[in-house]
Specification:
It contains 16 helices and 16 strands. The protein is of the alpha/beta class.
Length: 504
């Protein structure tokens, strides 16, 4: 289910909250289902059997017992309702605490550099106190239920005895029948008390279940595309033919309504036509963006933070759908292409490099799982990562842990570039690809990056203008709009916003 959710869900949900749901909520639900259901079934069978015998012995006393139990259940519902709201809040606070803990663990270096340990402890104590308050309230309501139910069962027994005595005196029942009925009443009290005793864990599980089903009920990522990307090769007549092996050439495959198949060569021509977009309905991030990018061309986006540069890459990947305007690749609107195939035509070097637990070889191969060791090494050489990799303890078999924290930021980004290189896609997106690499390392990878971008449609997003000087088309974004276009020299001559960024 989690893999089917859209990126928007992860952008708006804290990781700690999700981890709390995966561990605490699901585990609590599992324990209740495995330990409580059997008890509930036994109690239900007992109640049905006892009520059957009660009706046989005295329907009059049975009505009295049913009324009393109904009143008891109303009380249970009242207490349970009060307790359930606190249990729900308790699970939410637990998610916040877990999220804060995860954030603090990841940010330990920053915390220590700025000596914020005491501040972190204060904030954690405040969150923990909120958790304690809600947990205390929830447990108070849940724990008072059991003793009250036991006393109410005594009241039920006494009331039944009095009613039975009256009926016996009037000749409706015998004393023996009353005694047997009282025994059934005592037997009936046991499963009711047992259910009350388990109410605490049941309410906790219900609160967890509400959060779990809240995720399950999330709408999965919509994929209404029908066009796929397939490997092809060209014959002597330069005609495309679909094959089942990798050739380095691809085509968009569309099955027409009349049963015919149309192939469109994947080149990487990207067109934005009047695209307007906002993450929220009343907050526009991009306004009427129109541009054309062709193979071998480098399109650079520059601008202030929050201008909408990274949003453009999110839209090309179709992490978000465009409400106004359209985006097309090779003349095909991207919403007609299956998302998995669309994303196989792209490779990205993200601003924040993520490395998985595994070897260096495996992390580079993540860009194309069927790549051979030789192809992985070739990609690393292309990104100028081969030298530092071979200096690691076990070279390409060095195991990376904790998101590759043992590597420098520059080394991590070089691996990300190698991962993008091995994917061999027609479209390349570099999101702040060299923002964290020192000048020397930047120069080392520049030639490799030029080779990587050769023949590809490349989108470059960076704050440092030195990374985009060679781009033939530079788009200057401001408040979601393209306010200037041109190459470096043209934009400098205009003495506009690009000139200000260059001078500043």
């Amino acid at each position: 289910k989690m893999e089917k959710l859209p990126i928007k869900f992860y952008d708006t949900t804290t990781h700690g909250n999700l981890m709390s749901l995966y561990t605490n909520d699901i585990d609590t639900l599992r324990q209740v289902l495995s330990n409580t259901i059997t008890g509930f079934l036994n109690s239900l069978i007992t109640v049905v059997g006892v009520f059957t015998m009660m009706i046989i012995f005295s329907w009059q006393l049975t009505i009295i017992v049913v009324v009393m139990i109904y009143l008891m259940m109303l009380f249970v519902k009242f207490i349970g309702g009060k307790s359930a709201s606190f249990f729900m809040q308790q699970q939410k606070e637990l998610g916040r605490v877990n999220g804060y803990i995860e954030e603090m663990i990841e940010g330990q270096k920053v915390i220590k550099v700025f000596s914020r340990q005491e501040k972190v402890i204060e904030e954690f104590d405040a969150l923990n106190e909120e958790l304690r308050k809600n947990a205390t309230k929830a447990n108070v309501f849940a724990n008072i239920l059991m003793p009250i139910m036991i006393n109410l069962s005594y009241v039920l027994y006494a009331f039944t005895a009095m009613a039975g005595g009256v009926l016996a005196i009037k000749g409706f029942l015998t004393i023996g029948t009353v005694i047997v009925f009282l025994q059934y009443t005592r037997t009936l009290s046991h499963p009711i008390n047992q259910i009350s005793q388990q109410m605490n864990s049941v309410l906790t599980a219900l609160a967890g279940a509400e959060r779990v089903f809240g995720v399950i009920d999330q709408k999965p990522e919509v994929d209404d595309g029908h066009i796929t990307m397939v490997p092809v090769e060209f014959n002597e007549q330069n005609e495309m033919k679909e094959v089942n092996y990798r050739t380095g050439e691809f085509a968009w495959k569309e099955l027409k309504e009349d049963g015919t198949v149309q192939y469109t060569h994947v080149r990487g021509n990207v067109v934005f036509n009047g695209v307007t977009f906002g993450y929220e309905k009343n907050k526009t991030v991009l306004k009427n963006i129109s541009l054309y990018a062709k193979p071998g061309q480098k399109i650079a986006f520059v601008g202030s933070t929050g201008a909408g540069k990274t949003t453009i890459t999110n839209l090309i990947n179709r992490f978000y759908d465009v409400p106004s305007g359209n985006i097309s690749i090779d003349g095909i609107e991207i919403n007609k292409i299956k998302k998995a195939d669309l994303r196989r035509s792209l490779s990205m070097v993200l601003q924040d490099t993520h490395l998985f637990t595994g070897t260096v070889m495996e992390n580079i191969r993540y860009g194309r799982l069927d790549a051979t060791d030789e192809e992985v090494i070739a990609a690393a050489k292309l990104a100028n990562a081969d030298t530092f990799i071979r200096h690691l303890e076990n070279g390409y078999q060095t195991v990376l842990k904790a998101d590759g924290s043992s590597l420098s930021q520059g080394q991590r980004q070089l691996l990300a570039i190698a991962r993008a290189a091995i994917a061999e896609t027609p479209i390349l997106i570099l999101d702040e690809a060299t923002s964290s690499i020192d000048t020397r390392t930047e120069k080392l990878i520049q030639k490799g990056m030029d080779r990587l971008m050769e023949g590809k449609t490349s989108f470059i997003i960076a704050h440092r203008l030195s990374t985009v000087r060679s781009a033939k088309a530079i788009m200057v974004l401001e408040h979601g709009e393209i306010i200037e276009r041109g190459d470096h020299d043209q934009l400098i001559e205009q003495k506009g916003r690009y000139y200000e960024l260059s001078a500043g």
